[in-house]
Amino acid sequence: MDKYIINGGEKLFGSIEIQSAKNTVLPLLAASILTDEPVRIRGVPKINDVESMLLILSEVGCKITRKKDSLVIDSSNAVSHEIPTRLTKELRSSVFMLGPLLSRFRRAKISYPGGCDIGLRPIDLHLSGLQRLGVEIAERDGYIHCETQKLLGAEILLDFPSVGATENIILAAVKADGITVIRNAAKEPEIIDLQHFLNAMGAKVCGAGGGTVAIEGVKRLHGVDFVPIGDRIEAGTYLIAAASCGGEIETQGVPPENIAALLHKLRENGCKIYTKNDKIVLTSNGALRAVNIVETMPFPGFPTDLQAQYTALCTTAKGSTLVVENLFETRYRYAAELKRMGADVTVRGRTAFVRGVERLHGACVTAGDLRGGAALVLAALKAEGQSSVVELSYIDRGYDDFEGKLRRLGAKIRRVRI
Ligand code: EPZ
Questions:
Q1: What is the pLDDT of residue 317?
Q2: Same domain, 177 and 41
């Protein structure tokens, strides 16, 4: 097991190369079994969630080849429609396999997906959407058994603009008979990227990003060589780090409109932000003023995946901030760890009230989920003195070389074996 040793107080300077978006690469990997021709995905980050998804594809019978930071998936010999519990419990994204497995085999068998413990994370919207497409679903002996004679296009209205449900239904519909229309669909940039990927394979998907997605089923899809969009959450994490610690950093590869809600808040905090095409430059003196309230919302609102990192910034901003988490029930596990560093945070349900303090002090803290773990690192970079962060496996799920990139910006952080 490893831990981070962090000596806080350093300002951050330099530029960051942003990895391909984790939350795009994962559904693209699932989509790769929609064709029996090779699929190449470039710029893939070395993160554990991708490794878990590759294990799932191997279980299905895919052949995976790595070429530098590209992956080539050949599913011509894919044979299995079942994914064992030991793999699905690792990863929320295992549920994205339902659509492609049904499209390819007319059957799918998975257990309930795992993933970060940030709430109940039901999959009822996934399953009701698939049922609308003609899928019979039975839940027994801990597995979800899906079967269909033929996937048929349908009109689907989502009760909530769920990212995963939108993606799963699109994946099931691309080769269904007829037209599928998904209303109240998620608008995240990752959905738009999935549309680009599928259309490059010969699919007919339109409307992604606008709330209503239409899919005209086609007979077959062909291989593709694809470069996913940059990871807006990774970029946002580093921008928040620089805003909080002070300094000047540049991110390249994420269009500012993909994290506009965050940039708006950081400007309100007193940061200077310059943007041009896919470049974002942030300058901060590290002495920020608090904004009154930040509420997480589906895109284009403030991203829930940046809530923890932004709350860490609020702990030393001048004034108080009300943080409201509208998407997940228990996404404040990291708050107790921030308090060990001297933060003044009061959590009630989905709300956290943060009073800015003069300074945080170093402490030994424990990550409990991916983004909460990143938040603890950001707080430690700001704190006076030395901190250690343990349970790095959570951070390794979604950040490629987190400590290396921060060190290249001037942070005093190292990873040690314990
Ligand atoms: C995706 O999760 C992301 N994961 C999450 O990122 C992200 O936080 C989330 O979207 C919201 O943006 C991936 O893309 C792999 P949802 P997903 O379905 O699809 C409820 C990270 O840190 N819901 O949009 O699981 C659900 O309980 C991860 O990178 C249902 O009620 O999110 C939640 O309250 C964490 N029924 C809300 O919708 C369903 O069938 C949003 O969930 C599905 C979801």
A1: 98
A2: yes
